[in-house]
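Entry 14. Ran structure prediction on the chain below.
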Amino acid sequence: MTGAQLPHRLETERLALRPVVEDDSAELGTLIERNLARVQRYMDWAQHEPMSVEDRRRVITTLRDKAASGQEHTLLMV
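Output, structure tokens:
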């Protein structure tokens, strides 16, 4: 059984949410590294940071596949 399909992008006047994609890997890594101490205090996934761009791409591919099958959706704030 698959979950509900989300729109490709959710947008308000001040915020946009969209699925994370492999091309986000390098920039996302830079942002995470810059804020790592703060992020690790609140986010369980950040305990696996820092990771290489290639490892991050593999994680994002897995997240994309889970979203396509309706298992879970990971969105990026832009």
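The first strand starts at residue 10 and ends at 11. Will compare against last week's run tomorrow.
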